[in-house]
Amino acid sequence: MFKSTLNKGIFIPSMVFILLVSIISVLYPEMADKILNVIKNFIFVNLNWVYVWSVTCFVIFLVYLLFSKYGNIRLGDNDSRPEHSFFSWIAMLFSAGMGIGLMYFGVAEPMQHYTSEVFGLEHYVNKAKNAQLYSFFHWGIHAWAIYGLVGLALSYFAYRLKLPLSLRSCFYPLLKNKTDGAWGNVIDVFALCSTFFGITTTLGFGVVQINSGLQFLHIVPDTSFIYQILIVGVLVSLAVISALTGVDKGIKLLSNINVILVVGLLLFVLMLGPTVFLIGSFTEGLGNYINNFFNLTFGTHVYDKAALPWFYDWTILYWAWWISWSPYVGLFIAKISKGRTIREFIVAVLVIPSLFNFIWMTVFGNSAIWFDMNIGKGALSAVAGNPDALMFQFLEYLPLSTIASFMTILIVIIFFVTSADSGIFVMNSIATKNAVKSPKWQTILWGGLLAILALLLLNAGGLKALQSMTLITALPFSIIMLLFIVSLLKALSIDQSYYDRSFSKATVPWSGRLWKERLKLIVATKDRKSVDFFIGTLVKQAFTDLQTEFAANGIVANINHHTNPVKIELEIKYDVINNFIYGVETTSKKVSNFLIDEDNLPEVQEKGAFFPIAYFGDTRESYDIQYFTKNELISDVLKHYDRFMDIVSEERNEMFVSSNSNEKAD
């Protein structure tokens, strides 16, 4: 019997819906495509404003957080630090977010805008500028704001509030404990289905591009289905192997390799293409994007009816596509972003990938337009509608085109694998409610389902129907994402006030009555032995006196002793709210060489100075208590206990004082 971590309330409904939609798309592809396309077109034509306003709100909200007081809040405990290097972090989120898409549309989108009838009456220079402008718009800040919002919400609630890494957790400030029930399951089922459909369709189209490239290089004779089966079999197998090794190994390694290859291909085209034109067009294009940012953001083309079909087929389709992908990409970004500050997260997710996309679209798209205008005499424009082969035909205009084409196929293959392995990883995480460790057969199951359904849909022509289904799901999820903003604002506001809460006015400040004794302590040698002695005598006695007095008032207080480092805790345990903890431990810090060499300063050991540091159960900033007398230490503990009782008595602080913290500590 197989061991399983799959949650039945999520897995079974998801599988029923996924298989039902997929079977209909396979058996009745034309009918399914027709029906779903009608629904999609109705949404795009009549409700496109929902997408426009939603994406606008996402951008405004993230920019607000970037410059707000909340930017310094860490996605985790206040003392947590990132698990991955900055380069690996950027590489992984980029590979999961837009890897295959850039390879597929890097040349195709600018060329299709350039040849579009919407811009047909304008001079070719203006057409080229518009092609670059709208490529920037569709692949820039707005797209990454969609991913960033979901990733930020998930990271915050999972790592800051110790909730499961699940979309349901993003509603905790609004739904409280209801997120653990049926409502939470519905949200996760939606996320799982959306993720599965998005990855299946993208991988299906990725296989077609790989097959087309291999045919272009005469590695395979044609693009028949048998070769697509072989491609999917090999690549999904690699994806499963990568997913089994985990984020820290396979996914990170492949992402790092691919970013290096992508930058190499980018520099290759930049150096051997129309370099001066590209640098100039990037500069002008960036300025054009900044100047038109608000017009693009709020634009609906309502006054230009001739442009409306183009608007639906490009801008609205892109917003729907990014939104439908955001549960998957957001979950993966959150998985690798623990320990970052909100400001660091937004800059890295919003600005850096957008800037790279601008460079990519300029180098590949503008190079293709330049070749088309000056060398090809319209040859690339003639095949702009065939994006599967367009990239490879574009590379024919460059030296060493065969090598560049091989590199392109290798990049697409690795992007394929990284998208699939991170997708498998995320889907298993959703279906298991973020189980710490799952059996390997579950990873193989997700990989097998992706491969089989992608191939069946490719063979039957049902990918477009599934793509329409994916785009339709974006409408309700855009509303869900707006609620994420409400939920995050509520939580961040409470977070800020929670950690900024000062002591009550009833507490007694430190007096100068014992200033002579304190001066002796200041100039005394602060070695580990003396600090350990301080904790073992004065602190222990203070805690013992407190324990006795708490017991006299009907409260059980425990004293916990630890070694290496030496520390002692006064803990009051609770069943519903988190425990009250006041602890003191020996800690050290490096000191300046100036302090070591200065004769007219207290003697300092070269290894550093040691201090008794007070710490608390909620990761607030600790501080030095070496100058406290026993009674002052008792008073300080009571200050924190008074603050604790004041906070837990307020209903709005429930998310910070839940028993989740106790479970983690135990």
Describe the structure.
It comes from Kaistella flava. Its main location: membrane. This protein is mainly alpha-helical and 666 residues long. It folds into two domains: 8-495, Amino acid/polyamine transporter I (Up-down Bundle); 515-665, no CATH class. Helices cover 69% and strands 5% of the residues. The chain has 25 helices and five strands. It has helices at 8-27, 29-46, 48-67, 86-105, 108-114, 124-139, 141-160, 172-175, 182-216, 225-245, 247-272, 275-291, 293-298, 308-335, 342-374, 379-382, 387-395, 401-431, 440-460, 463-500, 515-523, 528-552, 593-597, 630-648, 660-665; strands at residues 558-562, 567-572, 580-589, 609-616, 623-624. A five-stranded antiparallel beta sheet has the order 1-2-3-4-5. The radius of gyration is 29 Å and the shape is elongated.
Which terms summarize this structure?
single chain; 666 residues; mainly alpha; Amino acid/polyamine transporter I; 2 domains; 69% helix
Helix content: 55-70%
Structural class: mainly alpha
Total helical elements: 25
Task: Characterize the main sheet.
Answer: 5 strands, antiparallel
State mean pLDDT (0 to 100 scale).
82
**N/C terminus separation:** 31 Å
Order of helices and strands: HHHHHHHHHHHHHHHHHHHHHHEEEHEEHH
Radius of gyration: 29 Å
Low-confidence stretches: 504-509
- How much of the sequence lies in strands comes to under 5%
In the CATH hierarchy, the third-tier topology of the largest domain is known as Amino acid/polyamine transporter I
CATH top level of the largest domain is: Mainly Alpha
Q: Could you state the oligomeric state of the chains shown?
A: single chain
The number of domains = 2
User: Given the C-alpha coordinates, what overall shape results?
Assistant: elongated
CATH architectural label of the largest domain: Up-down Bundle
Within the largest sheet, what's the order of strands?
A: 1-2-3-4-5
